[in-house]
Amino acid sequence: MQTGKIGVTSENLFPIIKKFLYSDHDIFLREIISNAVDATQKLKTLASKGEYNGDITDLKVQVKLDKEAKTITVSDNGIGMTAEEIEKYINQIAFSGANEFLEKYKNDANAIIGHFGLGFYSSFMVSEKVEIVTKSHKEDAKAVKWSCDGTPEYHIEEIEKEKVGTDIVMHINNDSEEFLDESRTAEILEKYCKFLPVPVLFGKKKEWKDGNQVDTDEDNQVNDTDPTWTKMPADLKEEDYKSFYRRLYPMADEPLFNIHLNVDYPFNLTGILYFPKIKNNFEVQKNKIQLYCNQVFVTDSVEGIVPEFLTLLHGVIDSPDIPLNVSRSYLQSDSNVKKISSHISKKVADRLAEIFKDTRDEFEKKWDDLKIFIEYGMLSDEKFYDRAMKFFLFKNAEDKYFTFEEYEKLIKDSQTDKDKNLIHLYTTHKEEQYTFVEEARSKGYDVLVLDDVLAPHLISRFEQKHSDKQFVRVDSDVVENLIKKEDSTKEELSWEQKQELSPIFQAVCPQNNTHTFIVDFQDMGEQASPMVITRSEFMRRMKDMSAAQGGMNFYGDMPDNLNLVVNTAHPLVKKVVEAKDKKLGKTLEKLVADINTQKAEIGELEKAKEGKKEEEVPQADKEKMDSLNNELAKLEEAKREKLTDFGKKNKLAKQLVDLALLANGMLKGADLDKFVKRSVELIK
């Protein structure tokens, strides 16, 4: 029996392995099984080279639990080790056997998982003692047993072992007894080992008998050794891809499309990416792509290797060329990762362009589910933006689809304004903005539907890239002003007239903290609505983007600024004006006359001050000026109060404002009830 010390530079290495080397303690099983798979793959390579003549038809890895003995044993019938190899590869930490083997057989080695020679020591995260029982494939090799209790000291001795291969026996410590539970181990195997290239056996298959699950005589293989992504696309049918998706995500809806990646230059990468069905709430969908290294699960946090916008996708990526840290748990950022990320983005864009070109009808049917990916990509990846312009689609209010170029041809003649800008009208909610949509269409305009959370950001990006194209929501102004063809020739109210009418309608606007109303007056024609509520395109877009970003900023905290546009040509509005003149005519005439008298006197005093310094103006004139200004303010306030009081009492004015609110879905609760009752009164 031989006793020695493991070749490490510090006795602190074991605590470091136990606490810090691996991100999750359950990863020990992945590492030990990965080493076992490596051992079988090495033996297969030697057999193909004629350097091993034994039977390789039943290569496998077996995992066994013994709750009483508190052990987990991982057994393989692979290449095995001699005492010298244990000394070299186990006792000298980080001298990786896989690296040396790969160098020797680099042109024909099967998939070798290990890179660093540290995977075996992950067993000490959960074990108070670890034993290796192994017999090398080499002729006349003696079987040996190695054991270590987590200190740098080990023991090695010759033993009897009939078959070639290795058993790793882990004596589980008290803190890690959860791993002795069959269901917990099965969960770990499903997570890390379900696609390993060598059969992994754990327990027996079960069947229902007399209301209970009982073991059968058949071994339970936990993995698919030949997963779909490892096959050639030409050998697969659509159902194969769907079946594999169900294997990955049993509870998910059927995906929209899939993209099969198969790259061998300038790096090796295979995989299948799926476009899942999602709508607006895409954040919760992340971390669904699984990263593998030679069919060993590494992580589902792939932000480093997959472009940000494609982290919304589902599926599998497998590459031996992705640089990982020593524990294979974290990606390392380098130029290779960036190249892979860029290549994946290109492959996805090329595939989408191909699907669009070959099956446009199907592409259009899936667009509403697909567009969130495309828009996210166009906003976050400049190269993808350029590629996506070939297949990005606009949908209009008639549910017809157009590429950017097709839509420009459609609206060029009718929606170019007087400054040669091409105006894209759009709605964010076809039902709520129905009246505005219909008014725009009645003018011969086409209206887009841009109703997802990324639309405000995307239309801003379009406008940045195309300075002669603008996007205007249909409720941002009255229809006559949405696309200005020429300067208006209609007679507008004077400032004084607007000042006199504004308090009447302002008085019957809702008073709350969520909306502020600015009253304006325009001649929209007798056939148009008596009043229209519009929303500033700039302010609304800023608030939409603020809401989409999930935080409240300067714009998000501000109340909605709404414009109440009063149609001065409408008979009902004229009726309110006539009622005002009848009720307040003489009172207003006197107030206006007094106001004009005050203004005239103030004007004379201002004229007398011209050319004088402040100290040269007589004190009497200063006092008179103050008195006149105070009197003018009182007269203006009295006029405003008379008009406001009239507005509050005028049922027709209130009814017209409520009609505009109702058309915008803004009349609810008690206000809606009052509107209905008032409507009945006015109809009588």
TrEMBL record:
InterPro entries per UniProt: HATPase_C_sf, Heat_shock_protein_90_CS, HSP90_C, Hsp90_fam, Hsp90_N, Ribosomal_Su5_D2-typ_SF
GO molecular function: ATP binding; ATP hydrolysis activity; ATP-dependent protein folding chaperone; unfolded protein binding
Domain of life according to the entry: Bacteria
Gene3D superfamilies reported for this sequence: 3.30.230.80, 3.40.50.11260, Heat shock protein 90, C-terminal domain, Histidine kinase-like ATPase, C-terminal domain
Residues that, per the record, bind ATP: E31, N35, D76, M81, S96, G97, T166, R328
Keywords noted in UniProt: ATP-binding, Chaperone, Cytoplasm, Nucleotide-binding, Stress response
Residue segments, region Disordered: 607-626
PROSITE patterns for this protein: HSP90
Pfam families linked to this entry: HATPase_c_3, HSP90
Family as reported in the entry's similarity comment: Belongs to the heat shock protein 90 family.
PANTHER family: HEAT SHOCK PROTEIN 90 FAMILY MEMBER
Protein name: Chaperone protein HtpG
Species in which this protein is naturally found: Mariniphaga sediminis
Gene: htpG
